[in-house]
Amino acid sequence: MRQTDERGMALPAVTAVTTLLFTFAALVATMAVRADKAATLYEERMRVKYATETGIAKVQQERSLGKRQAETLLNVGGVMVVVQTEEKEDGTLRVVATGHGEQGVRQTIAVLLDQKTLAIIKWIG
Length: 125
Prior knowledge:
With 125 residues, the chain is of the alpha+beta class. It has one helix spanning 10-64; strands spanning 71-76, 79-87, 92-100, 106-114, 120-123.
């Protein structure tokens, strides 16, 4: 029976195992960074959404006090919100609020309000 010479096989085996371990570690690190970024963007999206809704509520409040502005600029917790209002001929008020977050998140919500009661008739988007 002939013996095979296995000298020199340790180095390629260790190199292969080390390469696989480092590749796996890099993959796990990349996934963790992406998961953190996704969580940050989700949180920012919620902040911008609520700030944008706050802009609509601010227009309702100002209208109830008799103030009429075609455009309002608000800073709600670091979120810049631009609110535009347009009086329609059918007795409604169209309000479009757009929030701009710090991470590039943007949210636009539009509603129709009854001009007399300032109640929301319809959420447009």
